[in-house]
Write a structure and sequence with these properties.
globular, 40% strand, eight-stranded mixed sheet, mainly beta, Jelly Rolls, 16 strands, 1 helix
Amino acid sequence: MRIPRPALIAPAIGAAACASLALLPAASATATPHTFANGAATPGLAAAHFGHAGGPAKARVAAGRNGYNINGYNWSGAAATGSGFTSVTSTWTEPSVTCNSTNDLMAPWVGIDGYGSSTVEQTGVATDCSSGRAVYQAWYEMYPKAPVYYSLTSNPVSAGDKFLATVSRSSSTYTLTLTDSSKGWTKTTVASLSSARNASAEVIIESPTAAYPKFGTVSFSNSQINGSSLSNWNPTLMDASNSSGYEDHTSAVSGGSFSISYLHE
């Protein structure tokens, strides 16, 4: 999930028009789950590449929108920049969403790098609507490699689950840990990436498709970078938008807490 620096300006990402969910058959409650590439539970997740070169957010100052933050296009949330980042952590409750179209896809995550650098080391939960209903699945990604999804059988996710996500680093080795305290599971992945710059740390909601389901408000808490509260880093705050009229808004950060609210599409 890579995002170039705010100095780079690009046209807004347009969300592609998709078939109405009303035209899709209802999902069968007894259907056997099908697994796609990289363990994805849906075709939308299999196709997603967080930080794909064709769809990264390019932040710029959103002029004339008093009270709004930097326009992150398909990123919203908080990013701290500098050097030598070694850890980032946050907690949130996975939202119950309403799908607007089969193109809708959103993912709360935490990670190191990506804001002005070409790698991202991240973990979170994706909510995808490509099957005609909201499907929640946990994942990690060592961008530019593709995301890897955790098993829905061993690591199930539901709306309302409480998550703790942490990415930590020792030299070029990263430990990505995701805990669903509601379901009682923890998944830890250790991976190495020697090309990572460790130049930023983020707590983000992203849509690789730049199309979002209605998610209400997601509140992040206990957010820390290098063991210090998020607010101590004076992070850059971003609001997502697209050319179809979607906007969300990231609140001010207080200690380790802030929220992201869906406004309209």
